[in-house]
């Protein structure tokens, strides 16, 4: 009996924590929306980095104190481009301006994300799109939702009828990874109905979770890019693996999220 009560209490606690996390990302998103609208001009890499940092800082000034107050003992991932496993315990993995370069160019594809990772497993995530007012949430074992409405991945079983997507992993990527991305796009152009290639990864993964896109893949990548979408897709009934079909972890060198009906064919295509 006591074990059942303890498990229920933890689940309730995580559900309350997710609700508060969603509030935090919406507040940060509102602050970024106030900065959105005009193309930010830059002439050098240094100017670009300063503009990106200004957006990050605007959101982090809201996110860091609120999330720290919610989980005072949780660690904080400082670099949104970091990859690999985290040390034991709880960690906040936050991308304060996912799709930041799009924001600077007055493009609408950007978001604010916050994910709580416990013992290297994402427990809950909240992703807010300020321009549409959409908030995507997922809690382990409780499903994925858009503004409270349950999400489910596509029931498509034919890759030839599927929309698929990929994303650039990061700036200044290793040449081998860049070439692998190019060859994978070529392979998918032969096998899929439509191939989309754009940043950021998280927005593609939201679409997989919502059943709008049937598969997403990426080579390399960072925790902040993939963890929110990995939890959303899993809780929406999708399959997560690396590009060769093996279990995915933050240490994996590739990532694939797909509707169950097309996952095996996507693995076959990406493995050519």
Describe the structure.
It is a single chain. Helix content is 42%, strand content 22%. Mean pLDDT is 92; it is low at 1-10. Helix 4 links the parallel strand 8 and strand 9 (194-197). The protein contains seven helices and twelve strands. With 272 residues, the protein is α+β, with helices and mostly antiparallel strands. This is 3'(2'),5'-bisphosphate nucleotidase CysQ.
Mean pLDDT: 92
Report the principal-axis shape: globular
Given the helix and strand composition, which structural class is it?
alpha+beta
The largest β sheet comes out as: 7 strands, mixed
Fraction of helical residues: 40-55%
The number of helices is 7
Strand content: 15-25%
Number of strands: 12
Strand order of the largest sheet: 1-2-3-4-5-6-7
Q: Give, in order, the helices and strands.
A: HHEEHEEEEEEHEHEHEEH
Q: For the terminal residues, how far apart are their CA atoms?
A: 52 Å
Radius of gyration from CA coordinates: 18 Å
InterPro entries: Inositol_monophosphatase-like
Protein name: 3'(2'),5'-bisphosphate nucleotidase CysQ
Short description:
The chain is α+β, with helices and mostly antiparallel strands.
Index terms:
disordered N terminus; 12 strands; 7 helices; five-stranded mixed beta sheet; globular; 272 residues; 3'(2'),5'-bisphosphate nucleotidase CysQ; seven-stranded mixed beta sheet; alpha+beta
Helix-strand blueprint:
Elements: H1 2-34, H2 45-70, E1 75-76, E2 90-98, H3 100-104, E3 111-118, E4 121-129, E5 134-139, E6 143-146, E7 149-150, E8 163-166, H4 175-191, E9 194-197, H5 201-209, E10 215-219, H6 223-235, E11 239-241, E12 254-258, H7 260-270
Parallel strand pairs: 1-2, 8-9, 8-10
Antiparallel strand pairs: 2-3, 3-4, 4-5, 5-6, 6-7, 10-12, 11-12
């Amino acid at each position: 009996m006591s074990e059942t009560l303890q498990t229920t209490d933890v689940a309730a606690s995580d559900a309350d924590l997710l609700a508060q996390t969603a509030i935090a990302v919406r507040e940060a998103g509102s602050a970024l929306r106030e900065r959105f609208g005009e193309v930010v001009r830059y002439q050098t890499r240094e100017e670009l980095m300063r503009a990106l940092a200004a957006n990050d800082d605007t959101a982090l000034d809201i996110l860091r104190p609120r999330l720290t107050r919610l989980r005072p003992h949780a660690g904080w991932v400082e670099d949104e481009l970091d990859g690999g496993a985290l040390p034991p315990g709880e960690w906040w993995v936050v991308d304060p301006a996912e799709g930041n370069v799009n924001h600077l160019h007055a493009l609408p594809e950007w978001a604010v994300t916050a994910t709580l990772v416990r013992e290297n497993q994402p427990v809950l995530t909240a992703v807010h799109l300020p321009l549409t007012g959409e908030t995507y949430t997922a809690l382990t074992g409780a499903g994925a939702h858009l503004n409270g409405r349950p999400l489910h991945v596509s029931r498509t079983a034919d890759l030839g009828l599927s929309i698929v997507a990929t994303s650039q992993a990061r700036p200044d990527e290793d040449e081998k990874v860049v070439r692998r991305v190019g060859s994978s796009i070529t392979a998918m152009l032969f096998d899929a109905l439509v191939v989309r290639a754009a940043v950021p990864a998280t927005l593609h993964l939201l679409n997989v979770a919502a059943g709008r896109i049937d598969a997403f893949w990426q080579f390399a990548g960072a925790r902040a890019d993939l963890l929110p979408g990995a939890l959303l897709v899993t809780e929406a009934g999708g399959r997560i693996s690396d590009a060769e079909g093996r279990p995915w972890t933050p240490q994996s060198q590739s990532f694939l999220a797909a509707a169950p009906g097309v996952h095996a064919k996507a693995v076959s295509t990406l493995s050519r």
